[in-house]
Amino acid sequence: MLEIKEQIFAAVEKSANILIVFRKDYNGDAIGSALSLFYFLKNIGKSVDVICDEFKIKDKFKFLNYTENIKSDFQRDKNFIISLDTSKIKVASLRYEKKEDFLDIIIEPKNGYFSKKDVIIKEPELKYDLIFVINSPDLESLGEIFENNTNFFYNTTIINIDHLPNNERFGQINLVELTASSTAEIIFFLLKENKDNININEKIADLLLTGIIDSTNSFKSTSVTAQTLIVVSELISLGAHREKIIENLYQIYSVDSLKLWGRILARLKENNNRELVWSLITKEDFIKTNTNKSHLIGVIEDFIINIPKTKLVVLFFQDMDDKIKVILKDKNKTDIFSIFSAYNPQEYKGMIILTTSNRHLLEAEKEIIGKLKRVLEK
Description:
The protein is α/β, with parallel strands linked by helices and about 375 residues long. The chain has 13 helices and 16 strands.
């Protein structure tokens, strides 16, 4: 039986039109990995499209090459075909009438009658014969790209590449490596084993290093291993611009982000040994600082890094729909999904979001922090 990477290259070799997709709430790892794979596949002569649902390039990723190739939806054939079986009944005439919001197609038979079973509707078909799903825990995370095309995804070979533990292994081929720091690290080793003698050039190296740096919070994450550092060293030797990448990803802080930080720090709480730290954010905080829940990710990562004893960081926030939600980052990989299964836990950029039934932040704080303290005491 072929090894997983051999299966991937065999599938690529047999394919003519390849689709690369990644999750709607993408990060640097998703976009860097997808575009590096896109560049490689184009270089070996494949027809390739990259799609992310409702894609808009974030400011910090505008420096990357090839982002203009990412589409926000499928480019379909516009023709919609209604096919009529005329093997038994012949057509005498055909006309149409437009009535307000409807179009009536009127077919007069020469003999007999046409019925529903004689009609076949042919929707525009997608041309792809292979799908790469990159840095996405499940197909639902692809948004409407999947929701509106489920039959296509279920009937087309999927290669699933990821490094996160909550990945559902939904592909026919699954390259999921939990020990990797990032999906970009996995893609690096995959591309190195290609049989087409396509080298990783400076542009691919930049994309892959961006993925690794963003996924590891500039090498501060506990997921960084000796292998990660070896990969980074090789990418830099291939021409990746580490300083430029870090400058774009981390050294540009908006005034709005700093204002949100101030509000979070003002309400920061901790248990006796600082294993657990938490804070509260109101909807008004987001409105007055012109921020949203995505800005909370950097806060949590920095707490984990800069408070060595901290095992759990928890932020309670009031979302724009007025629901009280909780975002958690667990350094020791406690099974949050099991402990809080009643709170509809969802993975979000390597963290977990809970949705509570509480009406107020203080109610949610009392309920969730109480449970977490009991977990830490065990």
